[in-house]
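Q: What residues go here?
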């Protein structure tokens, strides 16, 4: 069982969710509005404190629990749909989900998602 988290530009959420819903085995997602910033490097690779660099930017985090067998496809779909080629496109990371339990039914693991 894997947990996928992706931080992306808010305006890319619709495109990402449409791409994910097109997959036959999309298990669903949680979407959270967040703020943050990347490395904070300006022109030439050094930090430049400007009004745009000291305040966190609005971002959107998408969280997905999925089986190991579909994880790579979901990550690839998120990356493809969220890509603009501009700085700030975001990140996707995957961690192990040690235990998942569906509250309503008590199902665990892959059956829970």
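A:
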């Amino acid at each position: 069982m894997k947990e996928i988290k992706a931080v992306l530009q808010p305006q890319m959420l619709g495109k990402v969710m449409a791409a994910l819903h097109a997959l036959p085995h999309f298990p669903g997602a949680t979407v959270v509005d967040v703020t943050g910033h990347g490395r904070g490097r300006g022109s030439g690779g050094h930090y430049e404190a400007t009004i745009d660099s000291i305040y966190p930017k609005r971002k959107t985090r998408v969280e997905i629990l999925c089986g190991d067998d579909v994880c790579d496809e979901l990550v690839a779909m998120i990356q493809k749909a969220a890509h603009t080629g501009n700085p700030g496109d975001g990140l996707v990371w995957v961690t192990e989900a040690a235990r998942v339990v569906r509250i309503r039914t008590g199902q665990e693991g892959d059956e829970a998602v």
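A: Context that may help when evaluating the design: The chain has one domain: 2-112. The CA atoms of residues 101 and 108 lie 4 Å apart.
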